[in-house]
Amino acid sequence: MEIEKKYLVNRMPEKLEQYDRWEIEQCYLCAHPVIRVRRKNDQYLLTYKNRPGSQSSEETSSLCISQEVEVPLTREAYEHLKKKADGICIIKTRYRIPYRDHVIELDLFHGSYDGFCLAEVEFGSVQEGMDFTPPEWFGRDVSGDYHYTNSYMALETVRS
Q1: Is the CA virtual torsion 79, 84, 88, 89 positive or negative?
Q2: What CA–CA distance (Å, rounded) separates 17 from 65?
Q3: Which residues have CB under 8 Å from 110's CB, separation 6+?
Q4: Is the CB of residue 92 less than 8 Å from the CB of residue 154?
Q5: Which residue from 96, 121, 143, 159 lies 20 to 30 Å from 127 (Cα-Cα)?
Q6: What is the pTM of this model?
């Protein structure tokens, strides 16, 4: 189970270059449920992601809760499946920034979304997510807004 919050970014944190980072390319074969192929540096993955039941309760409306399964792919399998993807491939640099007891994943988008930034934080429980206080450089919490899911962004750009 993946429990996370997602935020817009008001400003970049200082000394971003000191943090670990990955170059990510991800393409979507299906949006509901999400079936995605991803290249993360030189690692290739197939991901199944589904949001079980309704997330409309007041307690969890500000959290993204989903079942997620990742399995490794060969580069050849990734390239083959990538050709079958809908929409555009999302291209981004992901920085991993320690923050208190958590790790912030800061995504800086390239290509069609060049200059756009999102920050995500994963939690071990719903309560942990509800109690989270973000750093001051975070902007608006967009956890409950599907417009900020990568799958929506990949498919919606084509329709715009």
Answers
A1: negative
A2: 30
A3: 91, 92, 93
A4: no
A5: 96
A6: 0.90
